[in-house]
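Table 4 source record.
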Amino acid sequence: MRLVIAGLLVAAATIVGFVVNANNPDLLYAAAAPLFGNWQPHVGPGTPAAVLIAFLVVAKGSELARHRFALPIAYLTSVAWTFSLAMIDGWDRFVTRLTTEDEYLHEVPGVTDVPAMLNGFAARILDFQPDSWTTHVSGHPPGALLTFVALDRVGLGGGAAASIFCILVGSLAVVAIPLATKINAVLPFLVLFPGAVWVGASADGMFMGVAAVGIYLLTRWPLLGGIVLGWCLFLSYGLVLLAPLALAALWRQGEPGVTGRRIGWALAGALAVVGAFAINGFWWLDGYELVKLRYYQGIGDTRPYWYWAWANLAALALVIGPAGVQGLRKDRWVVAAGIAILAADLSGLSKAETERIWLPFAVWLLAGTAKLDRRWLTAQAVTALAVNHLVLTNW
């Protein structure tokens, strides 16, 4: 039943999006609504590789989950799957996705003094100023820009290195989630995650990997996990909604004292990162208040809430695929991710492009796929391949 509902939701969002775009093309600002991209059926050099990898994972997925080296094999396969999907659009598009005038790399050459950049970061968030940050830099805390500045400083500048970095870090979620949940059976579903279409290459794909590692670390070393999740707060303001997943990781049933101590250590780690940024001139809450104003200075003011409040969920269904929808159940990880997504949706600050923005939450919904068979793996592969071949996505 849930699959039928999801299918109807996707169909309705696509039909309504098509009709609205035909009559008012500037309203939704998403030509392939509910996805951000353009309807453009195409194949590319990555097509044969993507089909082959999908076939192998479907055929050998259950064996993969039981293999002695399951985690490293799954990681490498996920990297190959994500890269092959990206290559359906071609190498030239792949290496320029993070270099456009709206993206992070556009601002990297101008960062010559990191302390000065941090101290003046908030002042450049609002639009219509001579030195306003580009769209993506202004819409995120400075940690996202700092990441690409650091890559540039160590000799890995440019679009190719940045895009490959996003895939390599994003694919860490395939390892972190089974370690956190202690369920290896989800591995093949994580490998063929349809959301990989947007991991290669978007910064949100990188955020997904960092966040997943942080959640896993909370289950073992709360202080270290808190530090990583504290860093996540400075990658994207929306990652504050990782809180339900963090609680799921820290919770020890029947042991409130242990849970309390673990939460304390995690908070200490996160607050240390917040304090470090504050000392260097950037206060997270100031940035958040300003970014809400910036959001409504742009297309956030144009895109209608009445459509995106439910069309976002249609995009989510495509990101997690049929297996992700079928696997939705009363599992603490699934419930926690669902709460985060619902809060993001209702906020009104996530209107469109949620197929990439919600990646750090959406991937955890696959924690409920452990008991599904290879037919569902096939459905995952078909979903990803269909989306990537029919829509020229922005990321």
